Amino acid sequence: HWGDTLELSGKLSESYSSPDIQLIRVEALSGLGRAEEAHQELLSLFEHSETFMKMSVDRLQALGWDFHDRGQIALAESTFRKLLEYEPGRHELLATITHLFASEEEKLAAEAELERRWAEENDPEILLQQGTSLLGAGDAESAWPLLERASKGLPKNLIAWFNLGVAALQTTRWDEAALAFTRALSLSPDNVDVLLNRGTAYYNAKRWAEAAKDLERVTQLDPARKEAFYYLSYCYSGLGRSEDSRRAMETYKAR
Q: pLDDT tens, 18-44?
């Protein structure tokens, strides 16, 4: 109820001034589609409440994404760029601005800066978080080196090894993917997702026997994973087991 929110925040602001109320007004104006008014209110907030801004970076970052999703691009860009002024060390803010708003010249400079920053980052948890974020955004090539370093720093972290394997798969590093998934399986034996992905890596590397072993295990643990039967069919074909190949493909098509 953006209209009611705006009205109530207006009444509250008559009694006392608060950056929290001002931020609520920004959200309400944006929600009502009054982007220009929201922009002016936000600029006022930036100007007068530096301490609040530094304490509210995550909240404002989420608001920036709300602006973007509503198609209020200028408002989103202003929010992210101002936040970067307050938090120049936040790698994800620079990455967001580079991805969404930068010119080609700015992108090249920002990419070089990001590469330099990540080369200096030594916290494996931060590397894992950013690598996972890049992977989720479809940038497996950039995610790969961060996840490789993260997994070395977090040798007992299943997610680190699994995501490294996925990044390797998506960048056609078949052998590296298989190794990463093997490390993940050492932490979680019979994990169906890991087995399926390692089987896929072996399949792409034409390591038919190893792929078939993993995929057969997947079908035993979770027969609903029909894609395992699909890959198994081609693995059996590569091994010269034509009848098994035919049966696996029939099972795949029947599911």
A: 777 877 887 888 888 887 787 777 777
Place of tokens 């929290």: 20
Other CB atoms within a 10 A radius of the CB of residue 248 amount to: 25
The candidate with the shortest Cα–Cα distance to 60, out of 33, 36, 85, is: 85
State pLDDT tens for residues 44-78: 777 766 666 666 777 777 878 888 888 888 888 88
Q: Which two tokens stand for residue 150?
A: 């993260």
| Alpha carbons 232 and 105: distance in angstroms, whole number | 47
CA–CA gap between residue 153 and residue 163 (Å, rounded): 14
| CB contact set of 87 (below 8 Å; sequence gap of 6+) | 54, 57, 93
81 alpha carbon, distance to own chain's centre: 21
